[in-house]
């Protein structure tokens, strides 16, 4: 009996695997009947709404009968429903650099910037070169000793009190540090050296600020409409009449039938196949029992 169950299960699985696979199809969101042209050709437009991720090959484009008339496909027209909204957008970028030379700073900048905003806009921004600003990151102070020399000729005596104690040099006040004397003809020439401290402030680095500008866009609708147009020449086909050649279609989608009836072929073919497989399994079972009684099977 175990072998019999195995044979029946294998026959059933083979039948299920043999069933035809049907691609998913779409239903129209609207159907319009009208006449076209000087001869009042009967036409039907079926409109399908798909997302961009849907495959339009699943739109039914096969011939069908409706109201006693036979319709064939003429064309499928695609209409993009997307609505794109655009706006100006900018982002400010700062760059730390060790120079304030604008040419060198520009070389360090990205040539463009891809952005996506929080509200769904995206686009490419470019740097606004004329609007770049550079400022010091910070400052430090340094100091150094500066000196200056002054000559004082024809002094009556080598007396340091005859020499000024301070002088002004380059906006700094310097103090007398040393005097060298020389006698000439009863007079004295003095060479005085003055010294002082000079301080200066220098930048520890620079920050460049650049604004990237451009136009960003957002698609607010992501649907596509497909209009399948069918035409009838007033011909009705019976079972005995030859079937017309299928009109050129964009896809191999399953037939679209507007009648309220059921497509019996889809039900009858699998049922007949399963009955045939069940009969085959029964025949195998009977032969197995006969062979067992005859002693052919242990």
Description:
- The structure is a single chain.
- The protein is an alpha+beta fold and about 300 residues long.
- The chain folds into four domains: about 1-20 and about 255-298; about 25-80 and about 220-255, no CATH class; about 85-140 and about 205-215, no CATH class; about 140-205.
- The chain has three helices and twelve strands.
- Strands 5, 6, 7, 8, 9, 10 and 11 form a seven-stranded antiparallel β-sheet that branches. It has a five-stranded antiparallel β-sheet with strand order 1-2-12-4-3, with no helix packed on it.
- Mean pLDDT is about 80; it is low at about 15-25 and about 240-260.
Strand-helix topology:
Layout: H1 2-17, E1 30-36, E2 41-51, E3 64-66, E4 69-80, E5 84-97, H2 102-107, E6 113-116, E7 122-127, E8 133-155, E9 166-169, E10 172-184, E11 187-219, E12 223-232, H3 264-293
Antiparallel strand pairs: 1-2, 2-12, 3-4, 4-12, 5-11, 6-7, 7-11, 8-11, 9-10, 10-11
Helix pairs in contact: 1-3
